[in-house]
Predict the 3D structure of the following.
Amino acid sequence: MPVISRSNALFRLLRALLGVLAGGAALAHASRDDSPPPVQREFRGLWVATVENIDWPSQRGLDSARQKQEMLAILDRAAALRFNVVVLQIRACCDAFYESKIEPWSEYLTGRMGQAPSYDPLQFAVTEAHKRGLQLHAWFNPYRARLPNPKTPAAANHVSVQHPEWVRAYGKLLWLDPGEQGTRDYSLSVVMDVVRRYDIDGVHFDDYFYPYPETAHGREIDFPDDLPWRRYQEHRGKLARGDWRRENVNRFVQAVYQAIKKEKPWVQFGISPFGIWRPLHPAQISGFSSYDKLYCDARAWLHEGWLDYLAPQLYWPVDQKAQSFPVLLQWWASQNTRHRTLLAGMKVSGWKGVPDEAKEALREIELTRRQPGASGQILWHAKPLMVKSNSVAEALQNQIFAAPALVPTSPWLGAEAPAKPELRAERAGGELKLDWRANGGPIWQWVLQTKCVGHDWITEILPGAKTSETLKAGPAKPLPEAVALFAVDRFSNLSSSATIEK
């Protein structure tokens, strides 16, 4: 016979009254606090790079069936390791890993720029990620146009062909010039085309704004943006050239954030800049200055609230004093005055002078968890973790990410909790059949918590499309005595619980 969900408070009151009638032992049982534990919150991201086939697809020209198999393997692995966000690179060099009327198909897919596969990789990745309860963040490179030594010629609709007036040769690469208004409008149109047409959960940029400096004969080569710089001066611009470049990037970041929120407020906007803002910030830090060399003022983006999350690339070991992971993380947390989601961009392999990578990963994630104001991490990158015997992957699965986690909430976007769901249960033999539905929606995920006699609570995070589950008793595991179900919306807000207790 179906059992209708009840609130924890009402059920405990009834159980306590029954305990009064039945005697002290029952009353003592009723007063015990056996409510489900809070659900862990942590952003657990995994970068999946497509440029030069770093992570996916494994090589150019694979047939679509093989590409799909490789993508499913990555998503399955991410879910098994209890990540909750996959950050998939979909625009590496003004190309597309999705069906676009603006830019050509990427040569890293089919082996030739502009040649289409037989499916839409982004649509496939979004659908399959969501089936596994993973968020899919679309990763764009806003300004990089072409890498050196391309294997195929530029397609007729590539920006270097359509708008050469925006493109600059710098070193061996081609770059869109951030000083050109056309560049900024064009890249914004690319981002918003994806936001409108795909059910992505986030838009992501990495550390490429103005390019990393090139050198010749021991001297640094300046980026060739003389044309827009002269126009700026002719219009009586007052900024110095470095400040003008930073303002070009700042205006673009602000425009992207505002456009996303106008279209789909729940879609997150995140950036992963180089991990050092400027040397001596804080005092012990030395090294490359993203502020002065990439014209990237990530501190300003935090202060202005032009993003939902920031993941500085802290790719250094804990004990490397001049670029100390915990010292830099603490400094970034101190700059997060608007309390956006702050993450640590981390390596999973290749640390210099670190023989035990699993131990280093564990240390850095534990430091992130202890840092007030930090909310998780994004790990670089998928390929090392695909190896079954990888020590970092084993540490993630067995220690670091031993329990599932929801992504952090974003109260500046929306803080209203979804309605409590309706939950029904039917016991039949050795099975407990659960089914549920939302009271309003849409629902992004469900949190299902169950407790058997003599066991701890078990927490599962299920995709929003799932609306039933059958639990079976085993030799050493009876059917649950208590069940709690929570609805989770696109802002990661949690409802009150629908409960069933034996």
About this structure: Confidence is low (pLDDT under 50) at residues 1-32. The chain has two domains: 3-33+416-501, 43-400. Residues 241-263 form the longest helix (23 residues). Residues 107 and 113 are 4 Å apart (CA to CA).
